[in-house]
Amino acid sequence: MSEKNILSSNPWRSDGSLRHLLTLEGLSRPLLETLLERSAHYSAPLSVPAARSNALIGKTVALMFAEPSTRTRVSFELAARRLGADVINIEVQLSSRLKGESVLDTVATLESMHVDAFVLRDSDASIPEMVAKHVAPSVSVISGGAGSLSHPTQGLLDALTVRQHRGRIEGLTIAIVGDVKHSRVARSAAQIFTALGAGEVRLVAPVGLMPDEAEFAGCSRFTNLDRGISDCDVVMMLRIQKERMTAAAIPDEARYFQEWGLTRERLQRAKPGALVMHPQPMNRGVEIASDVADGPQSVIRDQVRNGVAVRMAVLETLLAGR
Ligand code: CP
To answer: Would the CB of 144 count as within 6 Å of ligand 1?
Structure first.
């Protein structure tokens, strides 16, 4: 099944409120703005205590991650706890899934324990969607990363980070660089930056890592790094998603860095003070030089900090008062 055609379930409740968050595609600009405003409310600098609320007291959130994660899983857990919810973590590789239990039987089991929301990550992009179609009407499903299809909360935190540093998305030139073809981060980022009025969203990738023409409507394409980041306001670097490639297709890392690694010299082609972003995990010395990742233009640590705020806003929006 083509990944881009699999999202067909209805994310809305009958009263027009958002029940599931599986993709940013199709969400209106006003709704995205509302989610970002609520995220900004929860986004606190590290110098002050983390924001908290009682909005989800009595709710239970289950995290089911079947692919590795550090940032998304931990920040969803912190977000749910800081809103007062109970949280359970299903280590899929240690669960009864390994004894042959289906995803839906695992979900039904947890529903019987009064779970109100599932956060799912899976290499099979159809899983969050399938679960959303089968859970009880009172239960919400959130994608924590679906194959190479979507990573909606990552897109939100990327947009929030740009807005905090630039005050707007509108009119900005944003380059998404590297393995765009296999990247759910790139898809969700392109969707939200386009929806929020970016002047130009550029896909900058080697020919073999550029997605099909049918995807990423409205984005411009560059197969040369220097030209692709020229005069950009934001440069978002991506790692090579080796886990979605055959061994033969994985580029040589040293050669990749020579041609596609973001160095201080190359960054000078972007606008002065251009933001450097990376969703992480990053491979230093492959897609990005360490002194750029840790340099004055990097907002990578802010992206991580904003991840908790965005996930608080999303959980609250979907679950509070239900
Ligand atoms: N950016 C991101 O999704 O990171 P993790 O894989 O660590 O969750």
So the answer is: no
Domain residue limits, the chain: 3-151+305-319, 152-303
The answer to whether residues 155 and 163 touch, using CB atoms and an 8 Å cutoff, is no
Number of neighbouring beta carbons within 10 Å of residue 40: 15
Tell how far CA 287 is from the center of its chain: 19
Find out whether the beta carbon of 70 lies less than 6 Å from any atom of ligand 1: yes
In the block, residue with structure tokens 């529903």: 111
Q: Is the CB of 154 under 6 A from ligand 1?
A: yes
pLDDT at 100 over 80: yes
Prior bond of 49 cis (ω within 30°): no
State yes or no: pLDDT of 2 exceeds 50: no
* Ligand 1 centroid to residue 14 C-alpha, Å: 32
Global pTM? Answer: 0.95
The answer to whether residue 248 scores a pLDDT higher than 80 is: no
Least confident of 128-132, 248-252, 303-307: 248-252
| Residue bearing the CA closest to ligand 1, atom 1 | 279
Taking CA atoms only, the protein residue closest to ligand 1 atom 3 is 72
pLDDT category of residue 117 using cuts at 50, 70 and 90: very high
pLDDT band at 94 (very low <50, low <70, confident <90, very high): confident
Mutate to test the pocket of ligand 1, among 69, 188, 277 (most ligand atoms within 8 A of CB): 69
Say which residues have a Cβ less than 8 Å from residue 48's Cβ, sequence separation at least 6. Answer: none
What gap in Å lies between CA 110 and CA 95, rounded to an integer?
12
Fold of 152-303: Rossmann fold (3.40.50)
Ligand 1 mutation pick, 63, 65, 70, max ligand atoms within 8 A of CB: 70
Ligand 1 atom 6 nearest Cα? 69
- What CATH number belongs to 3-151+305-319? 3.40.50.1370
pLDDT tens for each residue of 59-78: 999 999 999 999 999 999 99
